[in-house]
């Protein structure tokens, strides 16, 4: 029994390393050019896991294999791109990691499992919680400990954020500025503002006792 793991960001690679200690037959694919039906046929996986993927998955693969996507929202809410950012900027502090079977529509497939996910703290802290959630959920899925359910409720859709949307309005509240900066720390296009000839890039922020502390760079 073999499993295919499609991911490329550092936190997802850390997840893969954890899983590979438990499962010797899990194969990493981090190049979208290799995600072809012919290549997948050679691996012949029982499941294909997508904890972190930014490219369109060929429909022929979705139709012929059990493709499991992990989405950081309580589906059907916040379907689409940049779910973490689109929730944080709207003041959402608690959400879900949702594991679902992929189909021919965006984030609309049947759900296998959900797990609570806090959106407090830095992106790295959120990533660590995602690793824990995905790790536990993948183990359950491999063991067959899941129940397939249709998505229930009114779906909402949000687009993937673009780099130009990282420009920060400093006239907003401290909490808004804090959330804006922390949700766009590395590896995402960092928050920035322009003052005269200079561009200020915000790398991180901390809100403590109603005081906002910012770490940044001036270009």
Detailed description of the structure:
With 219 residues, this protein is an alpha/beta fold. 29% of the residues lie in helices and 28% in strands. It is built from 6 helices and 11 strands. The protein has helices spanning 10-22, 37-43, 59-64, 83-88, 123-143, 174-183, and strands spanning 3-6, 26-29, 47-50, 66-71, 79-80, 94-101, 111-118, 157-158, 191-195, 198-208, 211-218. Strands 2-1-3-4-6-7 form a 6-stranded mixed β-sheet. β1 (3-6), α1 (10-22) and β2 form a beta-alpha-beta unit. α1 runs parallel beside α5 (123-143). The chain is elongated. The model has no long low-confidence stretch (mean pLDDT 96).
What is the typical, i.e. mean, pLDDT?
Answer: 96
Largest sheet: 6 strands, mixed
* Tally of contiguous helical segments: 6
What is the percent of helical residues?
A: 25-40%
State which percent range the strand residues make up: 25-35%
The geometry reads as elongated
Poorly predicted sequence stretches spanning 5 or more consecutive residues: none
What is the string of SSEs from the N terminus onward? EHEHEHEEHEEHEHEEE
- Order the strands across the largest sheet as they lie in space: 2-1-3-4-6-7
Number of strands: 11
Protein structure class: alpha/beta
